[in-house]
Amino acid sequence: MKRFLHVKNVPKLYCANVDSFKYSKTVPTHELLTRLNYISHPKAGLVNWLPAGLSSMNKISNVVRKRMNEIDFEELGLSLISHNSSWKKTGRWETGLEFFKLDGKEYLLVPTAEEEITNHVASHLTSYKNLPLLYYQINPKFRNEKRPRSGLLRGKEFIMKDAYSFDIDEKSAMTTYNNVIGAYTRIFQDLRLPFTKAAADTGEIGGSLSHEWHYLHETGEDTVFSCDNCGSVSNVEKTLSFPVEETEVADVSVTYFMTKDKSTLVCAYYPKDRELQPNFVKNEVPDLNVHITDQELILAEFSDPDTLISKKIIRIMDARLNSRSNFPDFPISFINRSLITTLSDIPIVSAEEFEICGECEDGKLHGNRAIEIGHTFYLGDKYSKPLGCSVEVPVGNKTERKDLMMGCYGIGVSRIIASIGEINKDDKGLNWPRIVAPWEVTVVEAGNGNKEFEEVYRYLNQAGLDYRADNRPKVGLGKKINQSNLMGIPITVILGKKFPIIELEIRGKKYGDSWKQVYESRDFEWEVEYENGQDIKHFVHKDGLSRALEGLLEDM
Amino acid sequence: MKRFLHVKNVPKLYCANVDSFKYSKTVPTHELLTRLNYISHPKAGLVNWLPAGLSSMNKISNVVRKRMNEIDFEELGLSLISHNSSWKKTGRWETGLEFFKLDGKEYLLVPTAEEEITNHVASHLTSYKNLPLLYYQINPKFRNEKRPRSGLLRGKEFIMKDAYSFDIDEKSAMTTYNNVIGAYTRIFQDLRLPFTKAAADTGEIGGSLSHEWHYLHETGEDTVFSCDNCGSVSNVEKTLSFPVEETEVADVSVTYFMTKDKSTLVCAYYPKDRELQPNFVKNEVPDLNVHITDQELILAEFSDPDTLISKKIIRIMDARLNSRSNFPDFPISFINRSLITTLSDIPIVSAEEFEICGECEDGKLHGNRAIEIGHTFYLGDKYSKPLGCSVEVPVGNKTERKDLMMGCYGIGVSRIIASIGEINKDDKGLNWPRIVAPWEVTVVEAGNGNKEFEEVYRYLNQAGLDYRADNRPKVGLGKKINQSNLMGIPITVILGKKFPIIELEIRGKKYGDSWKQVYESRDFEWEVEYENGQDIKHFVHKDGLSRALEGLLEDM
């Protein structure tokens, strides 16, 4: 349809793949995103962002951008290719099983950018007065995932917002960390869906303080526990728990560890039907080497009667065990009992639903499946020390060189699309919050077009509304409306016979009802049709169309 | 400086590297961009886009985006990793000496995306009614450049806008091609600098019609010729030329070629002091194999007297030669003269300044050094045929499968920054058109700040002006102004003792004088200081600040 004014149309291949497709809520979200041409996968784990998907991704990126800018983080874009030298200095080159290495394995495609940003600051910082330095970027990251799955959730390439902070000391770094916590809270509030911030283990990235940000959902691959008394929330690798009451544990398993200096054998005893969390054992014996897990190798280290005299043995009993439990035999024969220390009542297994919270030792734990969408880490000097990222600081009337204290903060932008898609979908298809939708309003016309309708597009353009017209020839009106709903577009505007009265069909979830204020103060015709207390249709005079749309979208 | 309102500040490491740096116009632009923290190079050929550089790049991208959207191209973002299978089908895998190959050489980092976009269309197009399909993306591209140089001009990674079109036939593809020509013209007009569109050879990308888009500048590595009679413009690989008058050429060189079917020896004769253009020889003998250049190998093919009888020989004489020239001996002895065809007066060498235009055979050619910033190609079915990108088309009352007719269209976004930086720099440093500047206005304050100045930031925020405040402590006012000029920011706003009168220092080039209309209709105090007829300073009352700035920026 040729018009003088510029009409923004739906993408050309919009819904081209759904004619033979019977939607039901059980269709996996990644299949839905593919059928609806949000994305495509040229190969497993690789992603093409098609026009609708790119638009949604840019919208999420802009939410992130706004909130990171507000706390004075500066946006930059680091090279996607990184030389291995820094990764060797930080020790990550060896552990990087999932790196994409290239060009004679001298370079890699960046999975995260701690090394590069630390190099950047090390070479550019001239005075401690410029601290803190706060940077973020939103760009592709790479991981040579051997078993990519679920479309956007675990792929070989993904879009991530990664932020990095450099402070003069831990105190100032904690202020920065808390500012980021605030920005993350605002970002996830902007995105409308309920979220959870959970204390987390720092894992391979390192550092000493960490939170994971989750959407709670039954399809999640993580587990998050919250306490109904103290309110603390943590992921399964961080949730300490005590048994509800003294329970009878029949069979006991043991797992052996040793300390890094090989001086101490650590025997962790726990119920046979429970999962040991080695990190919890490490909490008790900080020098524990959790990477060496070969039980025979460990025991061999402690089997020579001649050297055993100089070694120590620590036995750690999980809180669920008691003296009546059925312990396995001790595998080493000649033991000087005075060398053995026994720690009892220590929580060393993964928590279970309704156990007692290890934080307050009072409330009950409640577990939820969760999808991780962000992660914040306080890193300390883990990267700044090996990469020489330090600065001269005045101390009295001298100066001293100090390593900078860092933090890093990720948000999985492409993961958020997959997660919100999954969580919000319903019987009619996808259902986006307006801030994530590829466009906010689909405009369809009944009949063969009407010259008068042009005026509507002019209004929409003037108001800067984020609409797309579906003017595909020979596609029926009902089908156009259904497809807009299937795509998850918040509102469909129907231009029909009742013009200048225009019908609005509401698809998006309402997260508020501030539209009623606009409705009460209307000076144009506006009728509402309700179903089960929900406003499902609005009939608005063209003169009020943009005000009604703005009011309704405000709540979505 | 802490304020209640949000003040947008210059980047933290803004100009941190220039204190020990003496600027002069001879400082190479890529060094300047690095010293001013627009970019950094973690390794030769790799680029980190620092906050100022990223901002300029995003601004250019947005100009491109606007103009491509206007001609109904849809933006998407294809995977940066591509499987080799399609590249083998199109024959580009073997020729790709500069590919970054990864993961057992099964994948590559994309240098351009003809293969992937053609696959996408082949698998998603359901009806010819959806044609034309028009796509573009703005994202990183990769080339394993062995000798990266000049910062952004020839690197291992760069930001490119690449667009692709799919049409039902050549006629419709030509309409698309011309629409792109229009959009490119508007893009480069938006960017303010004079540019040239030159007919170009299609080279490795292939196809049959091609234009290069250039900035003419003495630092360019390309040469572009234009005719002062017919106005045709072409690059050196496409410019046919005739000698000014019959000149005496003493020594003649010869280069041998053969046809792909090895049936014909082609002997190209040309002046010894000129550069042969094999493409021009190929114009005369379309089956010519320009890739085989080993002279001995070629002559060996034609040295067997027994088979020579079945072969042909074509002698091509450059237009600059005549019978008095000193030709080399013919290297093959037994020749049946009837097998030899001689073509004379053919232009086969690179044109030179003031030679006669090969198009109109009348005007004089003028050569200019040029920096290539864009390239447009009509591809025909070069990619659609091997990749099976076709569609059913009704022909009478039957249907036929037709290969789609493609075009591809590149713009070097990162190159444009380097080029405009180079072309526009002057005695004071960089000098950006406002649409490319990382920000448009730097605000500096004399003295120790003044509570009243807050009002100015409030005005600037309200007007949505793209300013940054330079509130670095202990940096003098003069230095701040000089650094803003060195960075190439169009205007510096100086808040000082004369407040509420505010001084504006003009740095940017004026490409118009529509500001004078705003000046004539002013209803606030506004004095102008001229030097050599140029307005170099403005003194504006705070109430008119945003209107004066908007008026002045309009021309920059």
From TrEMBL, chains A, B:
Its EC number is 6.1.1.15. It is an enzyme of class 6 (ligase). GO terms for molecular function: ATP binding; proline-tRNA ligase activity. Residues 45-433 form the Aminoacyl-transfer RNA synthetases class-II family profile domain. One of its GO terms (cellular component) is mitochondrion. It comes from the Eukaryota. It catalyses: tRNA(Pro) + L-proline + ATP = L-prolyl-tRNA(Pro) + AMP + diphosphate. GO terms for biological process: prolyl-tRNA aminoacylation. It holds the Pfam family HGTP_anticodon. Keywords: Aminoacyl-tRNA synthetase, ATP-binding, Ligase, Nucleotide-binding, Protein biosynthesis. NCBIfam families: proS_fam_II (TIGR00409). Belongs to the class-II aminoacyl-tRNA synthetase family. This is proline--tRNA ligase. It comes from Suhomyces tanzawaensis NRRL Y-17324.
